[in-house]
């Protein structure tokens, strides 16, 4: 009896507050827009058969017709992909440096990587507005050095979005790579060098392949949340920045078109399933390898 | 002996500068006397004073704290239960669905979680307010708690629990006296994680909050959309300061605990050897 309650409480909670809401989104994405509150039809009251009869894929067809949506999906994929790549290029050398740092520094370095994660995401994104704006710190610095005469427009462009994503998700990239590099047996590199590899070759042939799992995990941890990101494009991006999280938010709050917003959500999830499944598989392989 | 090359030193220096410079600038310029945020006009704590006068911010901060305490406590209880079920529960009907529902919210985009919960609350005719935010935050943070707690449960020696059961204690007593003290550090860090996630959440709260229940991130977001303001800088500095102090205290405590454990182990070795 007690075991039953132990299982039932969290189970029902998730069923009711995670799975059911999700099915509602799915249902509304198949409904028509109505000028009512809530602004969609049909409702649950009509009975299942009637409800099914009224379902159609109009909203999904609409997503393919209006080029705003598929452009937003493509540009989200592009922004998420390239910012993941840049985060890897910034994060790997840092994780590598941390793994080679003296033992007594490592706890402190680790804390320095984790600390930003505990600080408000919103504030970390906000900090960049003052840096990147036309009269911001970066432009002031560049003009003072004499590199530029006119302030560069960075804020409200896609470049600012890239910077924001790399900055906020960097710890997610560093930690799994550091964990992989930390476990690495240094003598393997020495063996490679003894056998005639240059240090660079040893790095490419030994270190990189052995930290592969960390790299994969880090990339997914950045790519997956970056794809549906809302705060960064809406604070740092401009009107030309198309990201699907922002479109969904606006569709819902500004246009009050719930069925289309729901359809946007369903398609976003379908796109996300591929990287999520790949990520899970990588994690499982890693867990099995450790056992 | 590993050696740090100049390349390692440069990448660490530049990397940490990139991570910390924006926040350092924010903190410095929160003490700026000028209303123009990027022009330095002398030191002044003026914006902190104005912040303390701003009742809208204070109200929002209070709502945020209430929500965070309630949701992280609920999430810790539910998440610990879920972790226990996952690791120790054995087989039961729908176990795959259960573990799927634990892991899915971790990767779900916030806009989708927010949208789906809002549609649920509207569907069942629930007024949006503090309660709906608490329910929403509990749901996603219990999953984080259960991941943290279950990784601790997996590594601990099960024979301790079995010994207690063999010696005649009920499963509940065994859990209370043996399991809970051992997993306590994970439960506490789970609570802290849930608390921070709740304090930090903007997107989900924007969907499920009502007009009377504006949280601090929502307030900050709508102020920030209009541009940089010195008051927000002051508020950010306060928040960064609190988090930094908290993290430093937490790491000192865990360091002291691990030192004590080391000493105990050494003492035990001396006693037996």
UniProtKB/TrEMBL annotation, chain A:
<protein>
    <submittedName>
        <fullName>Putrescine transport system permease protein</fullName>
    </submittedName>
</protein>
<feature type="transmembrane region" description="Helical">
    <location>
        <begin position="159"/>
        <end position="181"/>
    </location>
</feature>
<keyword id="KW-0472">Membrane</keyword>
<comment type="similarity">
    <text>Belongs to the binding-protein-dependent transport system permease family. CysTW subfamily.</text>
</comment>
<dbReference type="InterPro" id="IPR000515">
    <property type="entry name" value="MetI-like"/>
</dbReference>
<feature type="transmembrane region" description="Helical">
    <location>
        <begin position="107"/>
        <end position="129"/>
    </location>
</feature>
<dbReference type="InterPro" id="IPR035906">
    <property type="entry name" value="MetI-like_sf"/>
</dbReference>
<keyword id="KW-1133">Transmembrane helix</keyword>
<feature type="transmembrane region" description="Helical">
    <location>
        <begin position="261"/>
        <end position="279"/>
    </location>
</feature>
<feature type="transmembrane region" description="Helical">
    <location>
        <begin position="202"/>
        <end position="224"/>
    </location>
</feature>
<keyword id="KW-0812">Transmembrane</keyword>
<feature type="domain" description="ABC transmembrane type-1">
    <location>
        <begin position="73"/>
        <end position="279"/>
    </location>
</feature>
<dbReference type="GO" id="GO:0055085">
    <property type="term" value="P:transmembrane transport"/>
</dbReference>
<keyword id="KW-0813">Transport</keyword>
<dbReference type="GO" id="GO:0005886">
    <property type="term" value="C:plasma membrane"/>
</dbReference>
<feature type="transmembrane region" description="Helical">
    <location>
        <begin position="12"/>
        <end position="30"/>
    </location>
</feature>
<feature type="transmembrane region" description="Helical">
    <location>
        <begin position="72"/>
        <end position="95"/>
    </location>
</feature>
<dbReference type="Pfam" id="PF00528">
    <property type="entry name" value="BPD_transp_1"/>
</dbReference>
<keyword id="KW-1003">Cell membrane</keyword>
UniProtKB/TrEMBL annotation, chain B:
<dbReference type="InterPro" id="IPR035906">
    <property type="entry name" value="MetI-like_sf"/>
</dbReference>
<keyword id="KW-0813">Transport</keyword>
<feature type="transmembrane region" description="Helical">
    <location>
        <begin position="99"/>
        <end position="124"/>
    </location>
</feature>
<protein>
    <submittedName>
        <fullName>Putrescine transport system permease protein</fullName>
    </submittedName>
</protein>
<feature type="transmembrane region" description="Helical">
    <location>
        <begin position="174"/>
        <end position="194"/>
    </location>
</feature>
<feature type="transmembrane region" description="Helical">
    <location>
        <begin position="130"/>
        <end position="153"/>
    </location>
</feature>
<keyword id="KW-0472">Membrane</keyword>
<keyword id="KW-1003">Cell membrane</keyword>
<dbReference type="GO" id="GO:0005886">
    <property type="term" value="C:plasma membrane"/>
</dbReference>
<feature type="transmembrane region" description="Helical">
    <location>
        <begin position="232"/>
        <end position="253"/>
    </location>
</feature>
<dbReference type="GO" id="GO:0055085">
    <property type="term" value="P:transmembrane transport"/>
</dbReference>
<dbReference type="InterPro" id="IPR051789">
    <property type="entry name" value="Bact_Polyamine_Transport"/>
</dbReference>
<keyword id="KW-1133">Transmembrane helix</keyword>
<feature type="domain" description="ABC transmembrane type-1">
    <location>
        <begin position="61"/>
        <end position="253"/>
    </location>
</feature>
<feature type="transmembrane region" description="Helical">
    <location>
        <begin position="67"/>
        <end position="87"/>
    </location>
</feature>
<feature type="transmembrane region" description="Helical">
    <location>
        <begin position="12"/>
        <end position="31"/>
    </location>
</feature>
<comment type="similarity">
    <text>Belongs to the binding-protein-dependent transport system permease family. CysTW subfamily.</text>
</comment>
<dbReference type="InterPro" id="IPR000515">
    <property type="entry name" value="MetI-like"/>
</dbReference>
<dbReference type="Pfam" id="PF00528">
    <property type="entry name" value="BPD_transp_1"/>
</dbReference>
<keyword id="KW-0812">Transmembrane</keyword>
């Amino acid at each position: 009896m007690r075991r039953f309650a132990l299982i039932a409480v969290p189970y029902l909670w998730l069923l009711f507050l995670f799975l059911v809401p999700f099915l509602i989104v799915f249902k509304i994405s198949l409904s028509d827009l109505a000028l009512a509150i809530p602004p969609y039809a049909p409702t649950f009251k009509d009975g299942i058969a009637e409800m099914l009869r009224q379902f159609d894929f109009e909203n999904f067809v609409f997503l393919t017709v209006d080029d705003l949506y598929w452009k937003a999906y493509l540009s989200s994929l592009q922004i998420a992909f390239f910012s993941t790549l840049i985060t890897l290029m910034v994060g790997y050398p840092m994780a590598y440096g941390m793994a080679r740092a003296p033992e007594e520094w490592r706890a402190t370095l680790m804390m320095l990587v984790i600390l930003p994660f505990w600080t408000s995401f919103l504030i970390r994104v906000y900090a960049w507005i003052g840096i990147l704006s036309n009269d911001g710190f970066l432009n002031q610095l560049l003009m003072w050095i004499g590199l530029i005469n006119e302030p560069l427009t960075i804020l409200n462009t896609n470049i600012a979005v890239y910077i924001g994503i790399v900055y906020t998700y960097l710890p997610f990239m560093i930690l799994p790579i550091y964990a992989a590099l930390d476990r690495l047996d240094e003598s393997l590199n020495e063996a490679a060098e003894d056998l005639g590899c240059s240090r660079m070759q040893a790095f490419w042939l030994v270190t990189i392949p052995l930290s592969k799992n960390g790299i994969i995990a880090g990339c997914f941890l950045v790519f997956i949340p970056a794809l549906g990101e809302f705060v960064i494009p809406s604070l740092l991006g401009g009107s030309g920045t198309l990201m699907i999280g922002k479109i969904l938010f606006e569709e819902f709050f500004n246009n009050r078109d719930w069925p289309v917003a729901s359809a946007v959500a369903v398609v976003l999830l379908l796109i996300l399933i591929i990287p999520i499944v790949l990520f899970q598989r990588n994690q499982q392989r890693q867990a099995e390898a450790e056992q | 002996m590993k050696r740090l090359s100049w390349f390692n030193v440069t990448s660490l220096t530049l990397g940490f500068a990139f991570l910390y410079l924006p926040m350092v600038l924010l903190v410095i310029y929160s003490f700026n006397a000028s209303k123009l945020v990027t022009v330095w006009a002398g030191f002044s704590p003026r914006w902190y004073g104005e912040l303390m006068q701003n009742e809208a911010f204070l109200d929002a901060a209070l709502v945020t704290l209430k929500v965070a305490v309630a949701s992280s406590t609920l999430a810790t209880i539910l998440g610990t239960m879920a972790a226990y079920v996952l690791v120790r529960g054995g087989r039961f009907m729908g176990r795959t669905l259960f573990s799927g529902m634990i892991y899915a919210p971790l990767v779900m985009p916030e806009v989708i979680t927010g949208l789906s919960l809002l549609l649920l609350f509207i569907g069942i005719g629930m007024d949006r307010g503090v309660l709906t935010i608490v329910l929403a935050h509990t749901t996603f943070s219990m999953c984080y708690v259960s991941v943290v707690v279950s990784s601790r449960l997996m590594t601990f020696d099960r024979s301790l629990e079995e010994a207690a059961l063999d010696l005649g204690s009920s499963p509940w007593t065994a859990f209370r006296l043996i399991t809970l003290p051992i997993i306590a550090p994970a439960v506490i860090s789970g609570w802290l994680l849930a608390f921070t996630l709740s304090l930090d959440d903007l997107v989900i709260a924007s969907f499920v909050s009502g007009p009377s229940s504006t949280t601090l991130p929502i307030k900050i977001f709508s102020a920030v959309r209009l541009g940089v303001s010195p008051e927000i800088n002051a508020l950010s500095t306060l928040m960064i300061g609190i988090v930094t102090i908290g993290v430093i205290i937490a790491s000192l405590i865990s360091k002291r605990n691990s030192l004590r454990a080391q000493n105990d182990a050494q003492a035990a070795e001396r006693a037996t050897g």
